[in-house]
Structure formats: C-alpha cells, structure tokens
Amino acid sequence: MSEEYSFIIISQGLTCFIVFIAEVCNTAPEMKRTKLDKRFFGSTRGRLVTLLRGTTKTVNELAAELKLTDNAVRAHLLSLERDGLTRQSGIQRGTRKPHFAYELTDEAEHLFPKAYDALLNQLIAVLKGRLTPLALEEVLREVGRSLAGVQAAAEKNGDMESRIGRALAALEAIGGAARVEKGGEKIVICSESCPLATAVAAHPEVCRLAETLLSEIIGEEVREHCDREGPPRCRFEVIGSEN
C-alpha cells in the first residue's frame, strides 16, 4: 500500500469516526440518557445551564435572559448547586452593590455530548505511534478540511460575519461552545469548553484540526493560541480579519 493511499485512508477514516460518533451522541433516540438530557435542556434549569456554559453570569443577567424574577433564578441556582452543577465564581461590580457571579462545575460539562473524546484520544495515540509528527499534523489538517466540507465552499462568498457564524456552528456540531471576541480589528474565537478536550490534553497537536476547520470555513488564515494549562481552553485568532 502506497504512502499516499495510506494517508487518504487514515484521513477519511478519522473524519468519518468523528462525524459518526458526534451524530450518535447527539441524536440516538434509543439512548435513555440522551432523551433525559433533551428534556432537561428544554426545562428552565436546563436553559439556565446552557446560558452558563463557557461563561459566568449574575442573577440579574440570568433573570433578564430567562425573563424570570431574581428570586426564581436564585431558587433554580440553589437547586443546581445542590446537584453539583453550578457554583459561585467571584463577584461582579454593580451600580449600587456587587453581585455574585455563577458558573458551571466540571460535573455539568458531562451533560453535554462529548462521548467520542476518549475514543478519539486512543485513536490519536495509535496514529502518533505509527506516523511521523509531520505526517500526523497533515492528517489532522486534512480531517479539519474534510469536516469543513460543504460549509467552506458555501461560505467563502459570504461576508465575514456569516462565515464566522458558520464556523461557530461547526464547532458546536462537534461538541464545542464557542464565542467571538473583538478588539479593534482583531477577531478571536474562544471557548472555555474545548470540544476535543480529552484528546488535546494528551495530544496538543489535535488543535491543528480545529485551526484548519475554522480557516477553511472562514476563508482566512487562523492561528491557534489555545490555553492547555489545566482544562484546555480554545483561542483562535482570525489573522485575515486584520487586513
């Protein structure tokens, strides 16, 4: 088997693996946990958890977004705290008095679909033992290009905002919770919840997959500056946005 043919087979296989596992985790109707999670996220408590994913918010902010009273939000937060899903995270200044901020616990992240992470981690470990570092990086980039697929072709003619939106949706499709931060001419895509956290923690080069995925969809150069101290946190700068 030629080296080029092996590269194609490995890239296609890894792409199919990620897509298949992600779809199973998100859509399989026969899985009891999935059905419970769907009901949970449709409830007020579930909506509150979704709003806190990857960020911190005060009671006032949550109340405004959920259209509830402050006391109602506090009651839900208390219940979630008892379940080990939320916790207080510092204090934010208010116009009259400071407000407690809340965030999700590590346990709450298990509510979101990421079942493929451990399997992906093991698969990368096997490939890492058989491929050179350069070949592995190229495989990961090719997987990123494959995952971008039709979205990349459709969005290259759109404006920057629509392309960024499609890129965020692509990250969400594989389990991420990304947001955009803008500072002057700089655009940075961030996520406190890495969609490939387990694999990235053991194999940092996996970030190249997401870097290429975003670059293909946005149609501009993207560079990763992810924080891998502790739980991985995504940070991708859109270089072309500065031109």
* Contiguous helical run count: 10
Tally of extended strands?
7
Note the overall shape: globular
CATH class (first level) name of the largest domain:
Alpha Beta
Give Rg in angstroms. Answer: 20 Å
State the secondary-structure class: alpha+beta
Q: Provide the spatial order of strands within the biggest beta sheet.
A: 4-5-7-6
Helix content: 55-70%
The fraction of residues assigned to DSSP E strands is 5-15%
Number of domains: 2
CATH H level, superfamily name of the largest domain: Trafficking protein particle complex subunit 3
Average pLDDT confidence is: 80
Q: In whole angstroms, how far apart are the ends?
A: 44 Å
- How many strands, which pairing sense, and closed or not: the largest β-sheet? 4 strands, antiparallel
SSE pattern: HHHEHHEEHHHEEHHEE
Low-confidence stretches: 26-36
CATH architecture of the largest domain: 2-Layer Sandwich
Question: In the CATH scheme, what's the topology name of the largest domain?
Answer: Muramoyl-pentapeptide Carboxypeptidase, domain 2
Q: How does this structure look, described?
A:
This protein has helices at residues 3-27, 32-42, 44-52, 59-66, 70-82, 117-130, 133-155, 160-173, 197-202, 207-218, and strands at 57-58, 86-92, 99-104, 179-183, 186-191, 222-224, 234-238. Helix 4 (59-66) crosses helix 5, helix 7 packs across helix 8 (160-173) and helix 7 (133-155) packs parallel to helix 10. It is an alpha+beta fold. Mean pLDDT is 80; it is low at 26-36.
